[in-house]
Design goal:
Elements (H helix, E strand, L loop, with lengths): L4 E3 L5 E2 L14 E2 L1 H9 L14 E4 L2 E7 L17 H6 L6 H5 L2 E5 L4 E5 L4 H4 L4 E2 L4 H9 L21 H15 L6 H17 L7 H18 L1 H5 L6 H15 L11 H16 L28 H17 L1 H4 L7 H22 L7 H13 L4 H4 L1 H11 L3 H9 L2
Parallel strand pairs: 1-7
Antiparallel strand pairs: 2-8, 3-5, 4-5, 6-7
The structure holds iron/sulfur cluster.
The site of iron/sulfur cluster (SF4) has 11 residues, from loops.
């Protein structure tokens, strides 16, 4: 049975401004109907695609496909004039589902499917366009026609090795969302409170608790985290050397998702990449050359304080976290083996990563709102990027959460 579609009170906005960014550097998953439609379009008989596959399998699942990309990360169907070949040759209806609805997304949850907007589009990252409710009839029509499903999904595990019913998982997600949006505290404090909530929940011996007791515990944890988090602000400690190393390795993965980055693999590029990892371990020397996405810089440049940012610069990053937490998209995205605790850590980590990337983007000048919009596009793209959704990333976040290094990273890069 289909779930009812709901709009969340987060006032998201979007209209397509035809920048073409979603056709470059984005991974486009295909459902079974998309695969069948593309096969029936017989692209393998088209002169441009005889030796070029238009779909590739995901390494993690032989049954799942995505659109193929060229070596520079652009969609295999993107033409030189910036138009989509499927659209121009066969019409809008012939395109894969995601290409027709992006950046709108339905998140099936417990009892409803939340309609939200991915921020991997610069227009939605800037909240530029019509209110989300104006896009509701379009998505309802899609669901009525059976092109998208809003079927109930199983909840993610609450923490490693602990599966719970939807009611309890939803309570944990709702509590995290309330902590992230609690207007009594400034944004940095809210993030640290939410991380502390995840850490305390992770450490609590809950396996034998019934759902009622666990629900009470979740409510108690939410009440005590502001007090538990005070030491992070009264005694500001910089993150440790190993934490910075892990953090930078995550930051580099996100940097590659910047919409201006064009991967051009070559031997010299691979040698340079090897040197980059060596310098990353040492924490000295040059950052990798990812121009024009980011200017040339040194690792140490990104440790300098940013100072007070204009509200318009903070806004896109704050909205990414706000909209993700309200819809639960961050916890219900397809990341095998991730628990709610892991996903909270992943979401909160986007804040210091965003500010680290902002330092890099604005080396030698003042940061701008446009810098942050492009960075938010990269952060949102991370939701579908294997190096940031797999077990290695989960382990990195787990190691950072140990000894509260993630909290220290937030406070350090918020300077
Ligand atoms: S990235 Fe957004 S604005 Fe740009 S073409 Fe895609 S949907 Fe339209």
């Amino acid at each position: 049975m289909s779930l009812p579609i709901v709009i969340l009170p987060t006032a998201e906005k979007w209209d397509c401004h035809q920048c073409g960014i979603c056709c470059r550097g984005s991974l486009v998953p295909l459902n079974d109907a998309d695969v069948a439609r593309l096969e029936s379009q017989k692209w393998n008989e088209h002169p441009d695609y005889r030796d070029t596959p238009v779909m590739v399998r995901y390494p993690s699942s032989k049954k799942r496909f995505r659109l193929a990309q060229r070596i520079d990360g652009s969609c295999v169907f993107l033409k030189d004039n910036g138009l989509c070949r499927i659209h121009s040759d066969l019409g809008y209806e012939a395109k894969p589902t995601i290409c027709r609805v992006f950046p709108l997304q339905l998140i099936p949850r417990d009892g409803n499917a939340a309609l939200t907007i991915r921020r991997a589009c610069p227009s939605s990252a800037a909240d530029k366009g019509s209110p989300l409710k104006e896009h509701l009839p379009f998505m309802q029509q899609f669901v009525r026609e059976g092109r998208l499903t809003t079927k109930r999904v199983d909840p993610p595990s609450l923490k490693t090795g602990e599966d719970r019913e939807w009611k309890t998982v939803a309570l944990a997600l709702e509590t995290a969302s309330e902590l992230l949006l609690d207007q009594r505290f400034p944004p940095v404090r809210r993030l640290v409170h939410t991380l502390q909530f995840a850490s305390l929940l992770s450490k609590a011996k809950t396996k034998r608790m019934d759902d009622k007791k666990l629900g009470d515990l979740i409510s108690t944890l939410a009440e005590i985290v502001p007090e538990e988090s005070k030491p992070f602000f009264s005694d500001r400690q910089p993150p440790g050397a190993y934490a910075k190393l892990l953090f930078r390795s995550i930051g580099i993965e996100y940097a590659r998702l910047h919409p201006q980055f064009r991967a051009v693999p070559s031997w010299s590029h691979r040698v340079e990449l090897g040197r980059t990892w060596f310098r990353l371990v040492l924490g000295r020397g040059r950052l990798p050359d990812v121009r024009p996405a980011f200017p040339l810089a040194k690792w140490n440049d990104l440790e300098e304080p940013l100072g007070q940012l204009a509200p318009s610069i903070d806004y896109p990053l704050a909205r990414l976290i706000e909209a993700s937490s309200a819809s639960y998209i961050y916890a219900l995205a397809d990341r095998r083996g991730w628990s709610v605790v892991d996903s909270i850590r992943g979401l909160v980590a986007t804040f210091p990563i965003g500010l680290w990337l902002l330092r890099w983007a604005s080396i030698g000048r003042e940061p701008t709102t446009e810098d942050m919009i492009q960075i938010v596009v990269a952060l949102d793209r991370g939701q579908g990027f294997a190096p940031l959704t797999g077990q290695l990333q989960r382990l990195r976040l787990h190691l950072l959460a140990n000894n509260n290094e993630l909290e220290r990273l937030i406070v350090w890069y918020a300077r």
